[in-house]
């Protein structure tokens, strides 16, 4: 067959593969929103003149405008700056929550799924017991005794995510322990700790990190709820729930005080949930 008669190979397959690898518009929007909120929370407080506690007493409850992009609250404090500062509080609590949940729940889940038997029963009973406790009520009691602070709130919320992480990790480890590569490692006499570190943990980590998106939304909503109820950071320290609570008495005359942090909170939770769902569906197809 001559070169002129050669049948061309269609290039649709590589293009379709590249399209599948390309992030969707929703993922880009959600990731972009989270990046903007995170960068604002990290960088804007470093700028000169940023002071979420400073009150412009000449403009109390001022509507959004050039001087105050999201308006001011009843004390003349800039709502935009307070919303940005509130993001730092929410992300700090989320970071502590995920750290405690991943380390505690991951360790317990691996132990329960690997050793099984009495170890699994004891850990399972402890997880069920902790999940049966009304979380917010217990956290409010603990905060009342210890005092409201970001470390206390973050660690307490993190403790209540440990059972969920434990169950997720345990289920993965139970499945992996029956897989051929794990059985083969056992048959050749590989030490259990080496199998866990080299074979089990690398497969568990992506699933646990995917679940961390859900735990992050839980921690942000829980911190906002505690602050709204008066068990979060003490005023005038800003947090999303606290700012929303401060503006509820002026919803009729100055709705922007509550609506601005509420909108940021809702959009952040929505973005986290969307990215978490996408990661779980991608993992399921894999």
From TrEMBL:
Gene3D superfamilies: MetI-like. SUPFAM superfamilies: MetI-like. InterPro entries: BP-dependent_transpt_permease (IPR050366), MetI-like (IPR000515), MetI-like_sf (IPR035906). The chain crosses the membrane at residues 25-47, 91-115, 122-143, 149-169, 204-233, 253-275. The keyword Transcription regulation does not apply. It comes from the Bacteria. Keywords: Cell membrane, Membrane, Transmembrane, Transmembrane helix, Transport. The keyword Transmembrane applies. Residues 87-276 form the ABC transmembrane type-1 domain. CDD domains: TM_PBP2. It is a multi-pass membrane protein. It is found in: Cell membrane. Belongs to the binding-protein-dependent transport system permease family. This is ABC transporter permease. The lineage of its organism: Bacteria, Bacillati, Actinomycetota, Actinomycetes, Kitasatosporales.
């Amino acid at each position: 067959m001559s070169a002129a008669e050669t049948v061309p190979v269609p290039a649709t397959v590589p293009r379709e593969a590249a399209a599948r690898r390309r992030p969707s518009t929703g993922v880009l929007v959600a990731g972009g929103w989270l990046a903007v909120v995170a960068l604002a929370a990290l960088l804007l407080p470093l700028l000169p003149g940023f002071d979420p506690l400073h009150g412009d007493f000449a403009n109390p409850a001022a509507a959004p405008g050039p001087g105050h992009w999201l308006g001011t609250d009843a004390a003349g404090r800039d709502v935009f700056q307070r919303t940005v500062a509130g993001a730092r509080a929410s992300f700090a609590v989320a970071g502590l929550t995920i750290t405690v949940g991943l380390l505690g729940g991951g360790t317990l889940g691996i132990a329960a799924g690997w050793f099984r038997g009495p170890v699994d029963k004891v850990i399972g009973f402890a997880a069920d017991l902790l999940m049966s406790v009304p979380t917010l009520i217990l956290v409010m009691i603990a905060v009342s005794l210890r005092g409201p602070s970001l470390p206390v709130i973050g660690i307490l919320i993190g403790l209540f995510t440990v059972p969920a992480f434990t169950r997720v990790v345990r289920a993965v480890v139970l499945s992996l322990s029956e897989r051929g590569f794990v059985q083969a490692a056992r048959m050749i006499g590989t030490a259990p700790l080496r199998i866990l570190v080299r074979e089990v943990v690398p497969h568990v980590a992506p699933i646990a990190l995917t679940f961390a998106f859900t735990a992050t939304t839980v921690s942000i909503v829980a911190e906002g709820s505690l602050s709204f109820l008066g068990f979060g950071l003490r005023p005038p320290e800003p947090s999303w729930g606290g700012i929303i609570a401060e503006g509820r008495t002026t919803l009729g005359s100055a709705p922007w005080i509550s609506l601005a942090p509420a909108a940021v909170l809702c959009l952040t939770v929505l973005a986290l949930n969307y990215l978490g769902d996408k990661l779980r569906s991608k993992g399921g197809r894999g």
